[in-house]
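Hi everyone,

Forwarding the result from last night's run.
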Amino acid sequence: MTSADLAHRLGIPSGPLFFPVTAYGADGSVDLDTYRAHVRQGVEAGAAAVFACCGTGEFHALTPEEFETCVRAAVEETAGRVPVVAGAGYGTALAVRYARLAEAAGADGLLAMPPYLVVAGQEGLLRHYREVAAATVLPVIVYQRDNAVFTPESVVELARTEGIIGLKDGLGDLDLMQRIVSAVRTEVPGDFLYFNGLPTAEQTQLAYHAIGVPLYSSAVFCFAPEIALAFHRALIDGDRATVDRLLDGFYRPFVELRARGRGYAVSLVKAGVRMRGLDVGEVRPPLHEPGGDHVKQLAEIIERGYALLEEAQ
């Protein structure tokens, strides 16, 4: 099966990509019932795909057993309505193990995150992701960020690798991404997928869309799906008035608040989910909860976002 066949099999449609948080109970253990409810609510709200146990889902904090249980629960709750993509990471041996656990749990694809700790050269990175792809029948999306940054030539090699179907960019270097898109388009024509994976990706999606990166993750969808959907519709329809209104009145203030604390790309989202009525618990260490003033500001930003939707009606 070619990479193009795998991309077609994964079948991610246009729409907000949902990265559910992982729910924990008061004792810190995984609260599977609440997690199921969170996934179910997201799918019913209109998610295009579920990315289970990835960055927003605190992949780093889950044991392999918890990971497999959560991925299986996400697969069961989506019931085939949308694809489920699971995270995989750490060193090559562990990444392969997580890939196989995700496959056993019924996932439709993998988001392969950067290797743990080491800063490797291009040759080593290519070997790592090739071994992960060879270990599973699942289509693999490679996540570029932190210590896994690729040259255009390396992404061409990834695109030629059986089983690797796309690249998610969490780096934010638009010049590099334009050269990557151009190089792959020239050397490996086909259906290679590109994703904007920056935190609060809506803030940069106008620019990413312009260089040929149509898909993006939406952390906001976790706690304000109506806002995320309205932004996506406006973006696709070319409704710049609505896009700009939501960027100016909701997304920019949210991004500025998120920048005030390390780890807020996860903990602030989780606070937002709790605020909207689903007790998903706190983040696990080493992340920490946002301060009281920041939670209050988050509530005001969310209220303003929904007010903007009402104004547009």
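The chain has twelve helices and eight strands.

Cheers,
N.
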